[in-house]
Amino acid sequence: GKYGLRQGKQRLARIYMTEAYEAYVQWGALAKAAVLKQEHPHLLQLRPESGLERVDTLSVMMSAQALSGEVEMSRLLDSLMRIMLHNAGAEYGAVIFDDEGKWTIEAWGTSADIRIESVPLGEESEIVPAPIVGYAARTQEVIVLHDASNEGMFVRNTYVRNKGLKSVLCLPIIHQNQLTCVLYMENKLSRSVFTPQRLDILKLLGSQCAISIKNAKLYTGIQYLKENLELQVEERTRSLEQSMRETSAALAEASVYEERNRIAQEIHDIVGHTLTSTILQIEAGKRLLHKDMQAGVQRLNEAQDLVRHSLNEIRGSVHMLKEDKYAHLPNMLQELIRDTERNAGVTIHASIHDLPEWLSAACKKTIYHALQEGLTNGIRHGGSKVFHFNLMLVGSELEFRLQDQGIGARTIVNGFGLKTMRERVEQLGGSLTVDSRPDQGCLLLINLPYQKQWIGEKEWKKSRL
């Protein structure tokens, strides 16, 4: 260029100066290009930036801003379709999503008529050519056809042939190495519409589109949870209320059943023991009436007193006495032993060691009725006249031992009394065994657990119940 200037050949200088400036710009030597433009501005024949390029740049910025501002999926798809159709120069387009392995068309149409609706992508779809979309999704490659009806691998496709397509673009939109969706564009009027420049713009917008779609999906999920949270809470509340009503009814029924059994057990223990003693008193009175009238009458009076006492006990059980008559267990046991010896004419060798004061009412009641039932069975079924009773703490258990000297038996039949006694013991976490052999009497052994507990600096032993 400088040579042309020295030789006075302005036209030659313009050509070489312009080529040098464009080369500097292409190589990235912008400083050299700026100096050249400053020193010889009249020699540079620069091509002015086209209106199309200015519009594309501004359009990309506005489009990216519009896409980033949408969080609702329907509005985002509508904006995406309009922006892509405008920047691609397409007449018609569609957006296809992968829904758990099944491709679904979510939006399609022209700039004047865009439809937002989920439609499964079938092989014979009339909305988009399924083979082109499937190929782009599978290979994740951009498909550009400049004259789809006359050249390329899809010239025989029914959709392409029937619509007489010219330009076709299928662009997979990928974000973080994952396929987000597929953008399909077509033009039936012009060939080679989708130029490399337009394709670069669509790829740039596609990156922003992928981010916006991800945000829109998150927003849709949050909105769904927000709208359905109150309904879910109400449904859960109704379910809990129904469950509580059913549980309350079941507990009430169980409570009634338990109380019914308790009263039945109480009456059985009282009546069984009292009637056994009463029968023995009456039999003794009958024998004494012929020998000693006064002694016989005394026996009958004692039997009458026993019946009255039993009736009072039954009434107390039916009315569910609130007072704890088993509060002083050793005294109650001694009283039971004395009454049995007096009324049944038996001998009971008892050894009751010091017991914890905090034994529960259930534990005391179980011990009392176990002794009552054991004595009754030993007298009635075993014919025993002598008993040995021992109640003491052994290690971590309270041991109940009642041995009679009756006739014994090879097998023990679990009647109502023995069955009730076993249930009471097992409810307290204990164990009950009955050992009986012919002519060797019967042994009733009960073990009830308890645990130690520390309070301050003192050690206390506490019943588990």
How would you summarize the topology of this molecule?
Elements: H1 2-6, H2 10-27, H3 30-39, H4 51-68, H5 73-88, E1 92-99, E2 102-109, E3 114-120, H6 130-139, E4 143-145, H7 158-163, E5 167-175, E6 178-187, H8 196-289, H9 293-318, H10 329-344, E7 347-352, H11 361-380, E8 386-394, E9 397-404, H12 416-427, E10 431-436, E11 442-455, E12 458-463
Parallel strand pairs: 7-8
Antiparallel strand pairs: 1-2, 1-6, 2-3, 4-5, 5-6, 8-9, 9-11, 10-11, 11-12
Helix pairs in contact: 2-3, 4-5, 4-8, 5-8, 8-9, 8-11, 10-11, 11-12
What are the main properties of this structure?
single chain, 465 residues, Beta-Lactamase, Heat Shock Protein 90, 3 domains, 6-stranded antiparallel beta sheet, 6-stranded mixed beta sheet, 54% helix, 20% strand, rod-shaped, disordered C terminus
Question: How does this model look, in words?
Answer:
With 465 residues, the chain is an alpha+beta fold. The protein folds into 3 domains: 2-39; 51-225, Beta-Lactamase; 326-465, Histidine kinase-like ATPase, C-terminal domain (Heat Shock Protein 90, 2-Layer Sandwich). Helices cover 54% and strands 20% of the residues. It contains 12 helices and 12 strands. The chain has a 6-stranded antiparallel β-sheet with strand order 3-2-1-6-5-4, sandwiched between helices. Strands 7, 8, 9, 10, 11 and 12 form a 6-stranded mixed β-sheet that branches. Strand 11 and strand 12 form a beta hairpin. Helix 8 packs antiparallel against helix 9 (293-318). The protein is rod-shaped, with a radius of gyration of 51 Å. The chain starts with a helix and ends with a strand.
